Amino acid sequence: MPLIVDTDSDSGSTSNSKIRFGVDKTVAVIGSGISGVCAAAHLLKHGLSVTVFERSNGAGGVWKFDERPPEDPPYVYRPPSYGDQHDIPTSAVFNGGDTDFSNLEVRFAPPSPCYVGLKTNVPTPLMGTTLGNWPEGSPASVSHSAALQYIRSLAKRSGLDAVTEFHTRVEDVRKTSDGLKWRVTTLALDIEDGTLSARFTQKVRDFDLVVVASGHYNMPRIPQIEGLKEWKDSFPERVIHSKRYRDPEKYRNQNVLVIGAGVSATDVCKELGEVSNKTYQSTRNGRFDLPASVLPPNAVRVASVEKFVPLKARFEGEEPTLGKSQPIPGSIVLTDGTVLQDIHQVVLATGYIVSYPFLPQLHADKAVDADPNDELIVTSDGIMTHNLHKDIFYINDPTLAFIGVPYHVATFSLFDFQAQALARVFAGRAKLPTQEDMRREYEQRVESKGRGRFFHSLVTPGHEIAYVRDLAEWVNSYVKETGGEPMPVHSEEYLKEYKVMKSRLKGLYPEVARNDGELRELQE
User: Is 196 exposed, middle or buried (0-12, 13-18, 19+ CB in 10 A)?
Assistant: First the structure.
């Protein structure tokens, strides 16, 4: 069967135009978490030449536990284009001790926010992929180590180990001067076997296509609250972002303020329920806050923070020290007038900034989310990825694609479906609409959902199912013309489990509660 000839012109004419997609194309995949593994695996299955770049030493993404926490970012506003990476001279050569080498790895590839007690919060039957099943007998919720093992098993059986460059981070991605390819600049940490010696090697390579699968959880969002930076500067280990949280034992018998009421914030509060003296969970009553009813007995929901009052005592020397049992010598004023005192630790579970630092030309750190232009993917707010067709293809140049943008989803399975659609387009077995039609569909979605964090959410019952069904109907409409297997949709067993899950969640999310857990879209 012939493949579709898709060009960079809306008319479809192939004269004087570069053919964009086909099995002869080279693809760079950035990241080897579950989204990158799914993308690369399906691209390989469809015959494309794939190279995966992963900045850490192994696949797994957010599920890869590292007891070493990443460094905290500066407690001042940093625009999204900065990302979480640290600048390292490309000519640097390293020879040092164990501690120095460990710090070097952390700076080069900041570890994920995975903590000791992290488990999946979506039932395992909803987290499978077409690349392979979970091990027989897997419980409904599995540990981070089990999730990591599953991801790595998919990578191995799909042949990704042979095409993945580990300890290699992507520094820059931009079009070549003729506009025909993507120039990808990478920096590799080359470690000499059996030694603590390393050097950094920069490479520049050209690819026909690029897939961004770098995940959501990289650049911490630090709230700009009066007095917070002073507290952080004075007691850096007492004030952290939840990306650095690893184990509750540190907080035993202490009073802890957790800022945020999303899933991660609530998980931290639950873990602290076993050890802390008192946990205060501060919230702004956001749209995706979990209810206070899920908190442990020693935790209480309080109002949002207005300011951190300047510290009472003045300290001499480089850094003040406190005994473990001593609280921070200051107070915290909440927006309802409540004053918190005797707080030992502050955990900022305030989420993450959308950031693709290797695409600086598509960021506008001074533009606001409410008024982006057609070129940008990220504005100063860092709360969404703009200008994507079906949350996958960059509308202005769909040779750049993203996997893993939607959230409030069954991540593993949803990203697998996205990757299947992507692979069919990149292989030339399905055709994108014209740029004009993609733009029109995108603007209609903006009009319907509004810009902002909710834009990518599929929390409303049935929306995730409808999204996958829409992808499948689109790419399968070309099967007769191009051959190949049709893209599947969710099974009946999956839909039954999904309905049960949404019914359970209706007490947690307003979007679910408003629909009373019913899957209206499935009944159309």
Answer: middle
